[in-house]
Amino acid sequence: MVTDWIASVITALGPWFTAFFLLCIFSFTYKENPWFRFAEATYLGVATAYTIGFNLDWLLSQWRTVWSLTSTKIMLFSLALLVGLLWYFRFSKKYFWLYRIPLSIAVGTYIGLSLRTMVFAQFLHQIRATFIPLVAKTPLDTFNNILIVIMVLTVLLYFYFTLEHRGPLKYTSIFARYTMMAGFGAAYGDTVMTRMALLIGQARNLLSHPPSFASIAIVILTTLLVSDYLRVRREAREPIKGGP
Amino acid sequence: MQAGAEKKGVWERLQEVDSRIIYLLLWIVILWPLISPIGLPISISAGTREYFKMIDDLKPGSRVVLSYDLSFAGLPELGPMTLATLHHLLTKDVKIYICSFWEAGSDIAADDIKALNPEKNYGKVYGRDYIHMGYNPMREVGMAQFASDVYKAFPTDYINKKPLETYEIMKGVSGAKDFDLLISIQSGTPGNPEWVRQWIAPFGIPYILGALGVSVPEVAPYYNAGQVKAFIAGLRSAAEYELLVGRRGVALAQQDPLSTTHILVILFVVIGNLGYFFTRAKGKR
Questions:
Q1: How many Å is the maximal CA-CA distance in chain B?
Q2: Predicted local confidence at residue B1, as pLDDT
Q3: What is the pLDDT of residue B157?
Q4: Taking Cα atoms as reference points, which of B180, B224, B142 lies closest to residue A151?
Q5: Angle, helix B75-91 to helix B103-116, in steps of 10 degrees
Q6: What is the ipTM metric for this complex?
Q7: Can you list the positions of beta strands (E) in chain B?
Q8: Pair (B138, B274) in one structural domain
Q9: Residue B8 CB: number of other CB atoms within 10 A?
Q10: Is B6 part of any domain?
Q11: Looking at the structure, do residues B213 and B260 belong to the same domain, yes or no?
């Protein structure tokens, strides 16, 4: 079968494609270059096509299983499609106002749905979580609880701008700043872990197929070094503009 | 040498080091332990134990939603924990409902199912013990739809493209209230706040999650408020969880380079700060 043969070839070439595009993207750490730009453009195209394809597939499955069953449903589905197509009037200066119809539906639905529980889920529950006993079972828990209460109150005061931060407010502001700095530090540490994990994952991918990794890395690195060498030579030969 | 040009000190030169040298050092500390593993010890944190216990304590017949809310970009960090979580669920006598609100999530879930082969390795039957309900593109609206009517949110399953109600596993299931645990492995939006708004606040379903390391500051307040019962975040937690479920996987294999890269970053931070203070002191003089 031809399809089986194509599938086996693509499967065999998989590690080579992975290594090629990974190294093209990583080559940016050396400098901006055509390898990187090619991989970036390819990625954008593939990712967009993947998203569109996947969503169209979902739309078709909805049509087949739910919306094509009765005439009322067909009418409603067609209406929804028409409203959806109005998004494209964003590119028309004359009929731009039509684009506002689907936009307002989307914004209204999202805001309505999230506001329904947001006050409880993301406001009241969070406030209630800071109502904790100042004397806990262990000294460490007691210390933690006191720290949480002080930090929450001082950070809230930090964003209180009606009064100038002088006198006692000056000291609470300083403490709040250190509190936030500690938070930013923790966030930075977590960010490092995530970024490194992504890099390690890709490095592992590359090492899983050494021939593709090594050969492609040599080709890309050689082209970058040679182009750099030629550029330096050319610059050395050319007289400086505006010079004597 | 030009008149007036001052010779740069060690700290000044260190602050101006070419970024390519830093990248090169980074590659060395990553590749070296991957090629020749060191085997640094790993301790298991309380958070990971909580996550493990939430799944391990599930009663027989419990219904669990496992939502793959992640993209391919998050796979190196989240992939090991999704696989370990699915493995853990498959070892239990529970019903698993897999879904996704991210395009790539349903493909990743299908890959995980293929890799674990539940029929052969766990004696599970598709449609009776577990089901892949597929993808819903409507993000938070889709989650709300899933909560009120699962058949509208996912009309067909992902594997066979058959109507959901034709499967045995769907008997007695209509929406969020019929589930005993929600697990979301997530790399962004839609993710934790959306689940909390549409599932946890209105229905009070026990909810645990796996997240990227970078998401910890965003998830921690929900955990403190009791909305998230347990969470694991990052490759490190995934490795701990792999140890607990007894399935050594990719996360454990990547712990050595994770440690060496962190040591390197700490070294850079220390050098950068020392350089800043020394050059500032010199400027003042």
A1: 87
A2: 45
A3: 94
A4: B224
A5: 50
A6: 0.84
A7: 63-69, 95-100, 130-135, 181-186, 207-211, 230-233
A8: no
A9: 12
A10: no
A11: no
> Average pLDDT, whole number, for chain B?
92
Nearest to B214 among A125, A194, A199 (CB): A194
How many other CB atoms are there within 10 angstroms of residue B198's CB atom?
A: 26
Q: Is there a single domain that holds both residue B112 and residue B175?
A: yes
**For A52, nearest residue in chain B (alpha carbons):** B103
Instruction: For residue B214, give the nearest of A54, A114, A191 by CB distance.
Output: A191
Indicate if B95 and B194 belong to the same structural domain: yes
For A207, the token pair is: 């090492």
Q: Which residue of A has its CA nearest to B234?
A: A194
- B195 plus B273 within the same structural domain: no
| B128/B260 same-domain check | no
Same domain (yes/no): B245, B278: no
The answer to whether residue A61 neighbours chain B at the CB level (below 8 Å) is yes
**Residue B269: domain span:** 254-285
At A18, the amino acid letter reads: T
CATH number at residue B118: 3.40.50
Q: Residue B184: what are its φ and ψ, rounded to 5°?
A: -125, 125
Closest-approach residue (CA) in chain A for B212: A194
pTM of the model: 0.89
User: Is B7 a domain residue?
Assistant: no
Convert the pLDDT of each residue in B197-251 to its tens digit: 999 999 999 999 999 999 998 999 999 999 999 999 999 999 999 999 999 889 9
Please count the structural domains in chain B.
2
User: What tokens appear for B250 in the block?
Assistant: 């990719």
For residues B276 and B181, membership in a common domain is answered with no
Cα A227 off chain centre by: 33
Task: Dump pLDDT digits (tens) for A215-233.
Answer: 999 999 999 999 989 999 9
| The two three-digit tokens of residue B157, written as one number | 């399953």
Tokens matching residue A37: 């730009």
